[in-house]
Amino acid sequence: MDKIKEGLCSLVQKIKKEGLDSYETDVSKVTREVPINKSIVALNTSGCSYKKEGVGCFHCGHLKGYEHSERMFEQFLSDVERIEEKNKISIYSNGSFFDSREISEDSQKAILQHLKNLGFRQIVLETRPEHIKKERLEKLLNDLDKTELLVGLGFDTYSDKIRDLCLNKGFLRKDYNNATRILADLNIQFESRIVIKPPFLTEREGIDEAIKSVRYAFDRGSEYISLEPIALQPHTLQDYLHKIGKYRAPWLWSILSIISETHNLGKINIGGENFYPIPYEVAHNCHNCDIRIKTVLKQFEKTQNIEDISEISCKCKKEWIYDLKKGAPNLYDRIERVLEKF
Ligand SMILES: [Zn+2]
Fold first, then answer.
1. What per-residue string of b and e applies to 182-205 under the rule 16 or more CB within 10 Å gives b?
2. Centroid of ligand 1 to alpha carbon of 332 (angstroms)
3. How far is CA 176 from CA 103, 182, 183, 187, in A?
4. Which of 88, 100, 162, 187 is a good FRET partner for 76, with 20 to 30 A between their CA atoms?
């Protein structure tokens, strides 16, 4: 590992360590208490195994798993009972559903079987690409109608350099390609998640990189793209950079601009808010237009029609344009300057 990456890893390790004591590990409880109009069950697993191997993803706010993960299946059964709408259910596991170190193969099968028996029409799962294994998936889905699954893949970004340096995701574009190939072979739909504005990127670079990533992910056969604007969660790299004046959560104008460039390629959803821990700041413009634009974005998700998007205006657009013109030294120098002060 080169010096810059090593320095960043120690910085993030320190940031995350500071949050461990105050971290609420009962994600099931937190998810039940948050009023969102989506059917979500969060599993109290032992936590993302990638995190356990080191510092984990720089932008991820999950700090550790649940202390009694052996009770996860009972917790799932009780949480799923409260969901009445049987159209679509999202199972969040703060990691990878198909990673047997987090959710045993028996539990994976039992969860899917139970959801099918309850009559859910679509089940959304999430996983890192390396856990998409053809034989295992075939075996797991043998008794299930696999077209009901939608697998959320955190592709995050096109550039291997940005994915590694700014996010520390620990996989390459070719790993994502491999996962998409297997899912396509098995006729399983997938949604690729694309982050907007990884830490250290400028607003302009954030937009350009997201557009490139969305195009690529549609080319790879994604049924949906979920745009995930980076949110400010405590004890993450973006939180640290924000506090030293080196990061602003993405502008909503940037999201609108990405959608305008890519909406004709396929279906786009907008995430970035239903994260745990709950962010203290998310993508925003100004107080005069935030609510208006978020309403239009919600509408867009339903209709995929950009007519309303093109009509929005607000005085703050000038500030955004000013931000877009801001230059920055090369990525390594930017990181080095932050590390010098750490
Ligand atoms: Zn505004």
1. bbeebebbbbbbbbbbbbbbbbbb
2. 33
3. 21, 10, 11, 16
4. 187
Q: Tokens 């409260």 identify what position?
A: 82
How many domains are contained in the chain? 1
Beta strands of 57-148 (E only): which ranges?
A: 88-92, 122-127
**For position 257, which CATH number holds?**
3.20.20
148 Cα to the center of ligand 1, angstroms = 40
Q: How far is CA 73 from the centre of its chain?
A: 24
**Ligand 1 centroid distance, CA of 278 (Å):** 24
Under a CB-based contact definition with an 8 Å cutoff, are residues 138 and 186 in contact?
yes
Domain of residue 288: give its range: 3-341
List the beta bridge partners of residue 226.
Answer: 193, 269
| Dihedral angle over CA of 177, 178, 179, 181, nearest 10 | 90
Per-residue confidence at 278, pLDDT binned at 50, 70, 90?
A: confident
271 C-alpha to ligand 1 centroid (Å): 20
Rounded distance between C-alpha atoms, residue 326 and residue 307, angstroms? 29
Task: Give me the residues near ligand 1 (ion), CB cutoff below 5 Å.
Answer: 285-286, 288-289, 314, 316
Distance 21 CA to ligand 1 centre (A): 38
Q: What is the pLDDT of residues 9-47, one digit of tens each?
A: 999 999 999 999 999 898 888 888 876 667 899 999 999
Report yes or no: 227 and 194 within 8 Å, Cβ to Cβ. Answer: yes
Residue 147: pLDDT over 60: no
